[in-house]
Write a structure and sequence with these properties.
heterodimer; A: mainly beta; six-stranded mixed β-sheet; 0% helix; B: 114 residues; 11 strands
């Protein structure tokens, strides 16, 4: 069973751009890559989703190379409120059923 | 307001006493799922449901039951809770289960089994 792999933790400073990379070697052809943000004692919150190349919304960008075996979440000009755990999510084929595999999460700490 | 609700939010119980955690969504989503979250282990899927009357096991289904009799509700049942089921539980829903995985999560239920 393939897994996603993310750095356990990262530090950065307010105003910097932060890039978090996730590897997912067994991504299925029709699956999307999705990133979530979670604050303590809250449920995860959807950030961004993509299938290939680059996707951008009002809070983040997602870069996906042609082979789709990895993805990078980019947070521009972070603030203290971006301190959270970030999860990478992809679909994982198991037999004829799809099972969601969550990464272990990256704890991002933003310093003043 | 589009949301996923869970009840109760906090529950302390004793080993072996059956309990049910309710989950309801008002977005007409087909897909619903239960997760547990433990320190250092991220989110692990317990059960999921692709639609009414269709449920499947996730990563850690042992000791849990679910049912999906209506589209909006997906209760999690612990027939005989044990201390190793002490955890933070999240219910989630999404429009569909394949491909696109934009899930909406409930606020969580913190369960303690003594």
């Amino acid at each position: 069973l393939a897994k996603t792999t993310q750095p356990i933790s990262m530090d950065s400073y307010e105003g910097q751009e932060v890039n978090i990379t996730c590897s997912h070697n067994n991504i299925a052809t029709n699956d999307y890559i999705t990133w979530y943000q979670q604050f303590p004692s809250q449920g995860p919150r959807f950030i961004i989703q993509g299938y290939k190349t680059k996707v951008t919304n009002e809070v983040a960008s997602l870069f996906i190379p042609a082979d789709r075996k990895s993805s990078t979440l980019s947070l521009p000009r972070v603030s203290l409120s971006d301190t959270a755990v970030y999860y990478c999510l992809v679909g994982e084929p198991m037999d004829s059923n799809y099972q969601l595999i969550w990464g272990a999460g990256t704890k991002l700490i933003i310093k003043p | 307001e589009a949301q996923v609700t869970q009840n109760p939010r906090y529950l302390i119980t004793v080993t072996g006493k059956k309990l049910t955690v309710t989950c309801s969504q008002n977005m007409n989503h087909e897909y619903m799922s239960w997760y547990r979250q433990d320190p250092g282990l991220g989110l692990r899927q317990i059960y999921y449901s692709m639609n009414v009357e269709v449920t499947d096991k996730g990563d850690v289904p042992e000791g849990y039951k679910v049912s999906r009799k209506e589209k909006r509700n997906f209760p999690l049942i612990l027939e005989s809770p044990s201390p190793n089921q002490t955890s933070l539980y999240f219910c989630a829903s999404s429009l569909q289960g394949y491909g696109s995985y934009e899930q909406y999560f409930g606020p969580g239920t913190r369960l303690t089994v003594t």
